[in-house]
Amino acid sequence: MDEIIAKQIIGRDCDFMWGRGTVDPGKCPMCGNRIKKVPNLDYANYKLTQDLYVTWDCYQIVSERFRHFCVHRHLEGLKFIKLPKTNGYFYFEPTLIYPLDNLHTELRFDKFRNCCKQYNWVGGGVKYYGSMKFENERFIRRTVWLIGGGDIPLIVDLQTADEMVKEGLKGFFFRDIYYYNP
After folding, report:
1. Secondary structure (3-state) at 24
2. Among 99, 143, 107, CA closest to 123
3. Distance between CA atoms of residues 91 and 105, nearest Å
């Protein structure tokens, strides 16, 4: 039986970081694929009330409360960039990688682009599998691949996921990450 070893955090939808008519500087100028995440420091959204959002163009935004939760627990490798026009919110990106088991997750890769060294699209199966266990390690990490239209899945250890719920953080749900055990 497959063992649950981590959780994927899936945030609530919110409006585009790079709105219509603006150019996302993190995209390849040749093919339009996202190469890196570049937050829009002019982003303004006054309707945010939850602790984690994912914009329609796949940027993670977190509240001051979420940031405090991570800092208080000394979670490493997390980048928070203040969004000056969205009071109390930050662009959020983990810098440490969580290795997915590409074979058992059934990741599919569509057309490799030489211009930016990225795939047009990476899609995964219904079930995500981790390629290794992180025993007794606290973390929020990201996958190496931009999934779908440029989303970077966030992966959290089980203890931290439980503490997020107990702390009352809002605006997200979890999806199990399994360890393949033949």
Report:
1. coil
2. 107
3. 28
Distance, in Å, from the CA atom of 13 to the CA atom of 57, rounded to the nearest integer, reads 10
Cα–Cα dist 173/125, whole Å: 18
DSSP for 97-117 reads: BPPB-HHHHT-EEEEEETTTT
Residue given tokens 């990225």 in the structure block = 118
- Distance in angstroms (rounded) separating the CA atoms of residues 76 and 65: 17
DSSP structural state of residue 21: T
**Average pLDDT taken over every residue of the chain:** 88
Q: How crowded is the C-beta side of 33, counted as CA atoms within 13 Å?
A: 19
- Cβ–Cβ < 8 Å for 93, 60: yes
Tally Cβ neighbours within 10 Å of residue 53.
23
Of 106, 100, 93, 86, give the one whose Cα is nearest residue 44: 86
What is the per-residue pLDDT across 109-149, written as a single tens digit (0 to 9) for each?
888 889 988 888 887 665 777 877 787 789 999 887 766 55
Alpha-carbon distance 105 to 115, whole Å? Answer: 27
Supply the pTM of this predicted model. Answer: 0.89
Bridge-based pairing of strands 154-156 and 3-14 is: antiparallel
* pLDDT tens digit sequence for 72-112: 999 999 999 999 999 999 999 999 988 888 777 777 788 88
